[in-house]
Amino acid sequence: MTRPEAGADLLVVDAPAACQADYQKSLADVARSVSFANSGEDVGRVARERSSPVVLVHLDGPDGANPDPARLMRALRGLSDLPVIFVSQEVSQALSLLSRHSGPFDYLAWPIVPELAGAKIGTFLGLRRAAEKHAELERERDRLADALESEKRRTDTLVALAGEHVHRGKNLLAIIQSISLRTVSDGRSIADARSALIGRLRAIARAYHMATATGHAGAELHEIVEAELGEAAHRIVASGPSVRLKGGMVQTFTLVIHELTANALAYGALSTPVGSVAIGWTFFDCGEESYLEVDWTERNGPPVVSPERQGFGLSLVATFAGTGAEFPNVSFDPSGFVCRLRLSQDMIAAD
Asked: How many separate domains does the chain show?
């Protein structure tokens, strides 16, 4: 006879000593090993320690007399999740206990018929394998569901990023168009317009790189300032707390710093060997609102002359005047050009 499972170790409870040899013989072809315990032990623990997938309970008692039902029920409570086969000469005795057992069970008449025992034990083992397979399939289902949900979140993120890239691309083209038109219509010579346009486009390129390098999380203000000061950085003192601007503000603020730096190099304090610039930023409270103020101060440059008209740079600076601030937010004091930029909280990325 083929064994139901090569690794099946059966546990027999309350088998009289005189019957144990018969159990060994009857179950030799359907189990790898047969061990014995009595209902006074912690049968559930013993069954698990011995990896017994099926437990046989000999109802005729360990001494061959009628069993103690209370004692048996205490033993069976530890076997509620294991299959139990009741073995008895009296069917009525088995039936009286079957109705009181909550776990899976079956019945064998004593003496045991090996073929019948093999079929019943094999059925339980088959059910166990099916349950294990079902549990494995459920785990695989849950894993695939988690993977699907993760992929869905990833897809949603990519779609959102793609949409943001499209939006930023449209904004970038609009900014480039605006800058190009303003640059060539400022009354400059062709050479000056070309130089100014190239400088502004490069500033936009740097801003776009900073804004997208961190997944559109914006850029640190000090990084923007350092990038735009370029070779003039050694003549400019920059100071302020760590602040991250939102992605949508990076391009505009970068252009402002670029315009201030280019103007200082061409006409302002940085156009002379002894001139200097200080740029600092700090937070202020104004009523219930708070804002970041950025001050650009030039000293020891040539005499400051107020321009006859407002070009691209001053128009851009004016957008940072801030609500309720005096306009314009620049001063052409003879001692040096001063610019004050005000950034509201909605321009600043959260920590």
From this structure: 2
